[in-house]
Amino acid sequence: MKISTNWLKDFVELAPPVARIAERLTLAGLEVKKCESLTHPSDTLFEIEITSNRPDWLSHWGVAREIAAVENIALKNPAVDPETGRTPPPGWKIQIKDAGGCPYYTGVLIEGITEHKTPDFIVNRLLACGIRSISLIVDITNYVLLEVGQPLHAFDADLIRGKEIIVRKPKQGEKFTLINGAEIELKSDDLVIADSDRTVALAGVMGGKDSEISDKTRNIFLESAFFNPGRVRKTSRTHQLSSDSSYRFERRVDPEGVDLGRSRAIALIQKYAKPRYISAVIKAGEKPQLDVKTIHLRADEVTSVLGVEIKPSQIALILGRLSLHVKQHMPGSWTVGIPSFRPDLMRPIDLIEEIARIYGYENIPETLPAREPLTVGESPRLVLERKVRHLLSGAGLCETVTFSLISEDGLSPSKDLQHAVQIVNPLQHGLHWMRPTMVTSLLNVIQKNVNAGADSVPVFEIANTYMMSDQQKHPVEERTCAIALYGKKAAQTWLDTARAVTSYDLKGFVEAILGNAGCADLCVAKAQKSYFAEGTGEEIRAWQTPLAFLGQVSAELLKMWDLKEPVYYAEISLEKLLTQSEKTRVFKEWPKYPAIERDLSLVVKESVRGGDLISEIRGMGQGLIREVELFDLFRGKRVPKGCKNLAFRMIYQSAERTLVSDEVQKLHDRIAQTLVQKYQASFQTS
Fold first, then answer.
1. Which of 268, 285, 302 marks a domain boundary?
2. pLDDT, tens digit, for every residue of 263-316?
3. pLDDT digits (tens, 9 = 90+) for 519-531
4. What are the helix (H) ranges across 452-546?
5. Are residues 125 and 267 in the same domain?
């Protein structure tokens, strides 16, 4: 935003050089990015950077108020019209039908305008700030906007039907022609200014073509109002419209500025347009009030935060220079009244920050902390991620980083996207979804590398997946590790040979991650995923908590991504894994007594899970079974259809004594008989 120093001199006495003022403002938080000198007329412009929480700086009077506080000089107020002794305009009325969008609306009727030439000083000041002169009335509304920060709008009063102003939401399918000639279809969340028949302005954003000021205008209706910042912002973004008015309304104008801006404009119109008649102001609604009107502050709070002792009298002086209402109720303690143009001041710490910047950050000495900084332990999640990253990269997998936004290609609308998060305004066409899974992201990586000539693409990624939760209104992010294997597994030594990757390679990586995290008693169940080939999906659980799923990507997806070889894909929930992992590893002493091995071969139905059998064997082991391993799975001619042969190796060992072979054999036989009865199995012992 550009600020004219000639204009600032209407409100404060600027001692030269102005570059010093620019430096003082920047040190106090109002950044002056550039000083520009003009010759015709002679002037200096400040190009300032406005922070989003300080809309009161969006005017010359607001910047002058800041200069007065920084320099400790007097501030003059703009000349306004007293607005007294006038009669209401006959027949005119205002209705607010959407108080949430417009809590306060005022207007005044001005008739019989006789002068139309804009004074040179107004033209020059507007041009210096980047606004061209249009007509006297429009120039005055723009002038007031830049001077005191209150957006105004002037309607041609003769074009307002029914002498009525209605603030309302649009009608269904209603269209509106803007002052620039463009026609838009209004949305249900918009806020419009209408007469008795049609919309005449898009509230807080832009006026309409049907009621704009022209060379023939002699009578005007001057609007000054407070519009809801959120509503103006949404309308501006929806219709991709931006104006000087919307820029200020979006950041919240000062409610007290509604009357000030109107009175200032009337004073200028009366002086330069010389109207025949000015009505009394007609109003509707109430000015919105601040959430926090007073803040209690103590001098010891200021000293504690800033680390420097500022005299109580100086604290009160600084607060007063900021146009705050300071009332002392005991030594070193004040009640500070917050003016309507400072809604950002809500807590004592906000006042302390104001004191610091006016006192001068450069005047606050550097001091060491009063105590040693607290040591903060490393996040367990980051520790787990680092372990997973080292394990997979050490095994030869390459880490990828892909975009969180994806298209629906390859995903099922009824399964994968049913609870997915959809983007209303995507940054790129087609990327409408926050990914609920990383399978398509890694398929894109594999495709790109295969097209570049790679015959082996083992990759993984640690990132977030996103899902809508039934219990929560907002999307849930879950930290996930995804693994995808494609092509050949390279030979590890000169004795080894290259071969195609299999699902067992993938399962080995998953089990290594789970085992490295300390998860025990894992079991495997079938998993149904739309992007897996039929019957290949598996889910790994710990105590009924699903930790990971894996499987072979379906032929349909391989065809869609033009991949000739199988792709094996897995996802591990790192957040769930963290809850199931061992926090502390306990050292176990090396066994002192010898172990005895026994094998058990069982023929069971396909529906029987190996994990259930292992759990059953451990449960019957009477603490003497150190390890149970499933080392063989066979389906074939000797095994009945619908059944499978599972072979287990069991290691019996006691930490207290040497086991006798007969004792072990009796326990082994008892376990075998129990499994036969419970799972309808047939077996062979060895």
1. 285
2. 999 999 999 999 999 999 999 999 999 989 999 999 999 999 998 999 999 999
3. 877 778 888 899 9
4. 503-516
5. yes
